[in-house]
Structures
1.
Amino acid sequence: MQSSDVRSVLRSLEAFADPARLEGMARVGIDTNTALGVTVTELRRLGRSLGRDHALAAELWASGIHDARILASIVDDPEAVTKRQMESWVRGFGSWDLCDQVCMNLFDRTPFAFEKAVEWSAREPEFEKRAGFAIMASAAVHRKDRPDRDFHAFLPRIRAEATDERNYVKKGVSWALRQIGKRSAGLHAKALATAHRIEAIDAPSARWIARDVLRELESPAVRQRLARAAR
């Protein structure tokens, strides 16, 4: 796509924009400095109309607009994404929602997803570290092409970072372990064992993560769903 098409897409975003939404976004920890106030539902609808377009995604990301960057993750082609692009984009995560949307919509489907999940989970910057766990969580749902054993490497990283007290990190750690544990009966058992190991760590964040994970994975609803899937 040419830049004129990018301008047309940005005009569409401006038409959807509702500044009245920004206050609510800020209340839940979203950085609204460059946000227009477009809902994710509207972004997905626009993304479907545009289709996959790697060049357009690059232009949308370069705009620096929060909503446009989420749209970029929706229209980009995972097979065209490079490691260099992933590194550039992850450094631009200034909000948990942008981090999670990019990881759920795009990064978890790239050829480098599992490698970057492990690598980024050891990073220091809060949203770069969260991105590692967001990929783990999303891949557990989306990557049906990968065997369960590929998720085993995530468990030591989850346990290692369970003492990070930062809100978006500990929530990311819990999210990753819960989603891995819901993927299959085999991973459910491994996730429960990991949660109990985390529970034994003398750190407030570890105890919070363990409680959060065990509450969901030990619930009747999860156990029944996994039992049905195993039949």
2.
Amino acid sequence: MDEFNSLIAIMNRLLGPGGCPWDQEQTMTSTRSSLVEEMYEVLEALDLDDTAQIKEELGDLFFNVIFLCRLAEKFERFTIRDVLQNLNTKLIRRHPHIFGDAKVNNTEELLIQWQEIKKNEKANQPPRSLIQGIPKDLPSLAYAYQLIKRLNKASIAIPIDQIESVTPEQKIGLSLWHLIDEAVQQKVDPEQALRALIAQIKQQVNETAVNPYPNDSQPTE
């Protein structure tokens, strides 16, 4: 694709001799905050269902992904080709009902097959903690959601009601845990549910004229 090749050429110019000093100072670690920020901007655009904004923010996120790949090449860790080969191989391996002879009759069977494939992929790896693989930088709401799902799948009951809750913060934390647990039972992603609600409220707020100086107060010189 010409546009992809152009992007690679631009990236090479930025990271090459006479390129952008800021870009050339970056490492794979230093780009973390930018990657997270761009991801949330994509989510906001999706929540708003703004086509132009979605297109722009996906471009920014895509830039960050390719930039990380080019930094990996710079530090001789792996190449963009390696990333794409791994992705293509995994997609084919995890869709034997499309690229192989496996048969699934519904989404439930598809998810069971998916989990079995992932289990086989990890079969030769050492035992891991229950929380391993849950990104530690997830927002607390999303982290709790993933953790509760894993606890339920492993049939591990945490005596959450025995945890002392004295302060308002502790009580709110316990209430949120129970609410997220309810969301898991109803197969509702609480992070997405809250984001969708916030997007609606933001739209209503934006459409509401607000007096910046309530009670007829005016700024003083």
3.
Amino acid sequence: MQPTPWGPGPQSGPGPAPAWPVAPLTLPPLETDEGVMGRMLLTECKTPGYADYDEAGAYWAMLAMKAVVHNRLWSSPARFGAAGARRYTDIITAPGQWAGFSRGPRREVLLDPDVTRHVDELVTCANDGPPGPCHRFVRNALYVSYAPVQDPFAGLRWLDGGPVLPGAFGWRREGSPPPGGSFVAIPRANGGVLAGAQFYAIRP
């Protein structure tokens, strides 16, 4: 794994807490893929504020979310409204894909105020006092943003009676209407529900 500014790997589950005080966590610039990816993960993943929050599940959900962006970029970006995409930011800010992320008239990345407020609150929580669940949540999002892609569903080839492309290609909050089209829900038995997110494969 590549090193990151936050150490050699993720911080999830049991283990010794880092010595306190620790250096404050900061997000990469919004102009970078890591900056956009990190903010998207913090926005889309279930946070420690939920009563049923599961730290390990949230980390795996982040891995799967990054894999979705990666798979869309390297398969057929036009299929996901991002014709000509060259980087993760192009996929995340494509029209109608991720609420709160878009492009301005000069192709600058724009965030909705609610997204900015949510992310700022998480970072403030992470840096407030001794490291706890919020600190680990933000740190894991930063780690996943920089780390190589690890798709929990890379072995998928066949679902619901037909072939699918390997890996995950979308997700929605659990209980939301399915996206339809060529998307196929990955069953819970296959790990397709992570931290309250239902993940989807896609037909070739």
4.
Amino acid sequence: MKKIKEKQPEKAWEQFALSQKLSDEQLESFKKYEALLTEWNEQFNLTAIKDLSGILRQHFEDSFALKDKMDLNKVKTVADIGSGAGFPSVPLKILYPHLKVLLMEVCKKKQKFLKALIEGLDLKDVEVCDLDWRTFLRTTEGNFDVFVTRAAINELELCRMFKPSSAYKEATLVYWASDEWQPHPRVEKFVKEAKQYKLGHRFRKLVFMGL
């Protein structure tokens, strides 16, 4: 029985690598990512999902949904709103090393983890930003192609980026949502497209917003 249990993680990683067509280097990065996440979860509540299969599907594979709906080879810069433990942008960064990524996170414990993750994975062109969303919009200017968030902030708050005074009003916003999600009436005008994807046995969707 012990041998069977020992083989399970190895099999899960093998299937993950095959399904996502990962290089050996990318697979190693994801293994390091999972190890750091598991280690830090013992002290801090970074994520409620702590088993390997859950991390692979609910965090890594869910983050990958964007690569099937948008050509990330044409994207240069990504800002991750409420990045938490680095999802979805760090998994995407591993797949697309050319991306310049800003991780926006106000929780200090999660900031520390993100910095340790950047160092542990030797990620280049990845920064951690400690500003809250409203302060970020009000006090910064930058050139980001895409903003991403896995439902960290409600859509009314997110759409502040499309105000005339916003430095980021021309960017695209991608919002990870449940398949049942419907936009608030004041948000509906910003929704350009909702693209469904399947995660395990459930359907979800990526909501693309812009002016």
